[in-house]
Amino acid sequence: MKKTILSFATRNFECSVRADNKKIDKRQNALLTVLKKRDKLCELLPRSELKFTYEEKLTSLSSELSALNLCPLGNLKSLPIQNPIFFENTSYEIEILFVDSVTSCVPTHHLQRIQDNFSVNSVKTVKEPAWLRLNLNFNNDLGWFALPFSYVRNGITIEQCLTFEVWPFKMDMEKDLSAIYKVLDKAHPLLRFSWKSATEQIFDRSRFQHEPFELLWLAEFKSLNEQMQKGYKQILNAPHNRLIPEEVNLKAERLKGKLPNKLAEKARADIQAKLLNRRYALNQKRLSLDTPENQFVKYALNAISHKLEQIKQKVSVLDKAITKKGNASVFSRAFYDNLYELSKPYQQFKRFPLFKQISDYKGLKSESLVLQQKSGYSLVYQSWHKLKYYLDVFGDEASVSVKNIAELYEVWCFLQLADILQSPPFNFELMGKKPRLIDRLDKQNLEYGVKEGSESLFLFSRGNGDQEVKVELMHEFSIGKKNKNAKNQKSSYVSWMAEHKPDIFMKVTFADELEYVWLFDAKYRIDSGTNDRDMVPVDALAQMHRYRDAIIYRHDADTLSRPVFGAYALYPGYFKEQNGKNPYHQSIEQIDIGAFPMLPGQNQKWLVEFLKEIIGEDSSTKIIREESPTYFTQSIDIKKRNSTKILPKGIYSKKYLI
Predict the structure, then answer these.
(1) CA–CA dist 176, 322 (Å, integer)
(2) Of the candidates 271, 288, 305, which is a domain's last residue?
(3) Which of 336, 524, 551, 598 could form a disulfide with 570 if both were Cys (CB 3.0 to 4.6 A apart)?
(4) Is residue 650 one of the residues assigned to a domain?
């Protein structure tokens, strides 16, 4: 049952947030447990806040959560909240009820799917005030969620935005999430960004390189927009000018001031000779606005205007392509209106007479103190360089939409496993070039995807001769149905009933060409029913069983086998130092089904020990465990039975020596 977990009123509206208060308590306790496991001295949850774009006068504040410490009333631009109350995978109902003097209201979120979740009484009636109501579940989106809206009060349109932070309860957002981002950025910086995410992350200044991506440019531009506009206004009020030399040809009657002696004597002689139509070359200086500095600000103005229009057109084309396929539009009308409002001032600046007097920018021959120090020019110059080099330097608290944590955790697990194989004690070497994991821009989701199957292949090798071991590591290797249309029809790995795409497909080939397959699936989930230890949900383990049973290897037309030696879930469980035994060690030893906790900052000891058993350490000899009688069967005559042999490809001996 939902209760009001937060309610506050301002002079313009009342806002209430409703949720299952028992579930919120559980989420807070789970987060505190996560933090305590990492730091025994941690006794308090991190502080949170609700931000306003423009200052509001708070007239009342209440909550049914006992742990919530309320702040004093008064004029605020930020409402401090003692403990986090907004969590991933939690449903909320947010209602904004406007005062009588507000005649109309409208939500203005940039995503159409968020707009569709609003219920709105947009126009005040005699019986009912204007109101907005939003039903929302953040799923696995983490970071800052913005709830923008506009309303008309006393004939004046006011735009306001409530912004609050959505927290995880399975990991430490400050440490774990930052570590995951660091790994992903090293692989490819654009991998984690998404146009369609409901939440945003605020980034401090950091350095990384990547190709152009309009989402990042737009985020950086929004953070610099106010500074840029202020600079242009100052320039238009007091433009820089300088004296420039020019040669003019004047008649004697127009010669004024002090003249060169030779020119004065010649002019007097011509006048005496009554040669009055002669003209005389004179070098003068005049004030001009056509300076390199003004040429630069005109160039930057045109570039910004063009870029904003380019983004609008590109997003519009992608959005239309999505709707043509019968899918809902990604972006709302408010998104396009916002782009228009961003570009409007710059279009107005371009129409000023100043820029009509200025020629094209030809570059600067030397450093300009005007651009670096003069009022207005320095603001434009600094902002422009931050925009220009956003590929290298990104930050200053620019907010960017990021993919949900479940997707990012999956890719991080894949990259971590690749890194473990290349590190001691395994020391595998990468054969060939490192695969470029990032795929082309997904026009359906307006984000960069991760390559799948053979396109994501890491091929590792170690040792020579009878000590050689090769490992193939693939992300989401697709194992399709046994038909002509199967995506992997050229592959010998097939599935009859449905397509399967395990997150991590690891095939190990030994010196005598025997092949073993192990599967890993990243599950950003923790079983809520276990309080003492972090465990993976039971249905995640059931999926591991399905993988092993459903995936078939076709040796030839008559011989089939089940090649998957084991399948394991990877989940964000925390076990300090991973001392003792893995909670799933028995099932892994008995049936090769289980799970491994995997989080940044841990040594992944249990996973490393398991890999030592199955593929051995560098330059060592290990024995793979005997074939499990419940799993491998060699006594079946395939020609007399329709069932398949349950064995890895090519295994006919009971023991294999590395």
Answers:
(1) 34
(2) 288
(3) 598
(4) no
SS3 category, 321: helix
The answer to whether 439 and 449 have CB atoms below 8 angstroms apart is yes
Q: Give the span between the Cα atoms of 146 and 149, in whole angstroms.
A: 10
Average pLDDT over residues 218-226: 84
pLDDT, one tens digit per residue, over 554-573 is 887 778 888 899 999 999 99
**In this structure, what token pair is assigned to residue 175?**
């440490």
Number of domains in the chain: 4
pLDDT at 403 over 50: yes
Question: Does the pLDDT of residue 396 top 70, yes or no?
Answer: no
CA angle 428, 519, 409 (to 5 degrees): 85
- Per-residue model confidence (pLDDT) at position 480: 80
Query: What is the DSSP-derived secondary structure letter of residue 203?
Result: E
412 and 500 share a domain? yes
User: Residue 293: how many CB atoms within 10 A of its CB?
Assistant: 24
CA angle in degrees (0–180, nearest 5) for 194-599-197: 15
493-494, strands of its sheet edge to edge: 493-494, 552-554, 560-561
Specify whether 492 is located in the same domain as 387. Answer: no
| CA separation for the pair 486, 219 (Å, rounded) | 41
- Count Cβ atoms within 10 A of the Cβ of residue 612 and give its class: 0-12 exposed, 13-18 middle, 19 or more buried: middle
Tell whether 160 and 26 lie within a shared domain: yes
Burial of 597 (0-12, 13-18, 19+ CB in 10 A): buried
Structure-derived torsion over alpha carbons of residues 237, 243, 245, 248, reported in degrees to the nearest 10: 70
360 and 460 housed in the same domain: no
Write the CB contacts of 533 (distance below 8 Å, at least 6 apart in sequence): 573, 575, 583
Report the candidate in 545, 528, 524, 526 with the shortest Cα–Cα distance to residue 536. 526
CB 453 within 8 A of CB 476: yes
Distance (Å, whole) CA 208 – CA 200: 19
Give the pTM: 0.76
Question: What is the DSSP secondary-structure string of 585-599?
Answer: HHHHHHHSEEEEE--
For 459-479, b/e burial (b = at least 16 CB within 10 A) is bbebbeeeeebbbbbbbbbbb
pLDDT at 296 over 80: yes
For the stretch 456-515, pLDDT in tens is 889 999 988 888 899 999 999 989 864 343 444 467 888 888 889 999 999 999 888 888
Asked if 568 and 544 touch (Cβ cutoff 8 Å), the reply is: yes
Rounded to whole angstroms, the Cα distance separating 653 from 647 reads 11
* Contacts by residues 590-593 (CB-CB < 8 Å, ≥ 24 positions apart): 590/628, 591/628, 591/630, 591/631, 592/548, 592/565, 592/566, 592/567, 592/628, 592/631, 593/541, 593/544, 593/545, 593/548, 593/566, 593/567, 593/568
Residues 62 and 96 sit within 8 Å (Cβ to Cβ): no
